[in-house]
Amino acid sequence: MMPLRASSEEILESAQSPTVGTTAAERGAAPSSRLDGAALHLTVAICTWNRADLLRRTLEQMRQLKTPGTATWELVVVNNNCNDHTDVVLEEFCPYLPLRRIFESKPGLSNARNAAVAAASGVFILWTDDDVLVAPEWLDSYAEAIRRHPTAEILGGPIEPWFEGTPPGWLSRGFRVVEGAYAARDTGCSETAITTDNLPFGANMAVRREVQLRHPYDPALGRAPGNMLGCEELNVLKGILREGGRGFWVPGASVRHFIPRSRQSLSYLWSYWRGNGLSAARIAPSRGRFRLLGSPGWLWRDATMSPFRLLAGLLASPPDRWLVHMQTAAISLGRIQGSLPRLKESGKSSTTALSN
After folding, report:
1. What is the C-alpha to C-alpha distance for residues 190 and 183, in angstroms, rounded to an integer?
2. pLDDT tens digits along 139-151
3. Strands, E, within 130-196: which ranges?
4. Could you tell me how far CA 64 lies from the centroid of its own chain?
């Protein structure tokens, strides 16, 4: 069984015009794709790039999922131009899971996510990652939450870190500060509302498909070979909430997220936070009156002063103190660096206007 190969643009076009070229049966749509109290069809989506062995563990765990009552489901896995043995792993699980394979040649997590959205046939898309172990109740918990909250457009679940080996002492003691860098989320025990200040991560969230189609993932954001940009899912979720969408946390839909030893380091955290700063600069420019090279004075202050505070903290403060200074320095530097292309582009536009 060969993976379906199509670009994200082609798939999006066919999804938005379903009567052109394909039938509902050919797209794998459920007999009834809307929530009518009797039938509920869900899409579980995973985007993967060169992590075949971790993906195998993720899919093996999915074989333990409890059947979600009267709901049906499909598993859409997007191969984002992998050059390892990902296809071999997917072939192994085709007999055991309702698996549909999609190939997206354009590199980058946002391109892969958009391909998954377009291929999905479920009322909701349940997002997780290729380095995650879902709880047996994960799918059923989301299905029940969708029935309890028929107007919800976003749902999210808890994410527990799954460390390779024993994490270093500074990481354990300062984890409260860095948990976002490892996509950790503790949602509590009740189904509270999701707000822009506390959003789900892509490793464990669900979005109504019709809403997701209106909010594609920005290819300028998200992980891609050679960069540490992120925030693509947070940008989408904020847009949905700004439109008046509602969301709820689902404590029973829990997952464990693998954290390899290579990410249990200060160099990883610096790259992650700097990438967040670059992403923030692409989403919106920093505000402030006095500006130097396109960035406000307060951002330069944070970028220059925080390293000194970090060094002082390393000598005399606990990790949860000096990690804050490191985070501020890395994000500020990223935002400054991210503003430079914007400044150059603005200069080019001004030069063009003058020449005309």
Report:
1. 20
2. 999 999 999 999 9
3. 132-134, 154-156, 159-163
4. 24
Angle at 33 between CA 29 and CA 34, to 5 degrees: 170
Token pair of 191 as six digits:
């189904």
> Burial letters for 22-61: b for 16+ Cβ neighbours within 10 Å, e otherwise?
eeeeebbbbeebebeeeebbbbbbbbbbbbbebbbbbbeb
CA separation for the pair 4, 212 (Å, rounded): 21
The residues with which 248 forms a beta bridge, in sequence order, are: 155, 193
Q: What is the token pair recorded at 317?
A: 């403060």
Beta bridge mates, 103: 5, 79
Output the CA–CA distances (angstroms, integers) from residue 233 to 149, 239, 305, 334, in the order listed: 21, 10, 31, 19
Dihedral in degrees, nearest 10, Cα atoms 82, 84, 88, 92: -90
Burial of 159: CB neighbours in 10 Å, binned 0-12, 13-18, 19+ = buried
List the helix and strand counts (H, then E) for the chain.
12, 13
Show Cβ contacts of residue 287 under 8 Å, excluding neighbours closer than 6 positions.
296
For residue range 181-234, list pLDDT tens digits in order: 999 999 888 889 999 888 999 899 999 999 999 999 888 776 666 665 656 788
> CB of 255 within 8 A of CB of 160?
yes
**What residue has token string 């172990």?**
133
**CA–CA dist 326, 318 (Å, integer):** 13
Euclidean distance between CA atoms 328 and 306, whole angstroms = 6
Q: How far is CA 25 from CA 11, 28, 32, 153, in A?
A: 16, 5, 11, 25
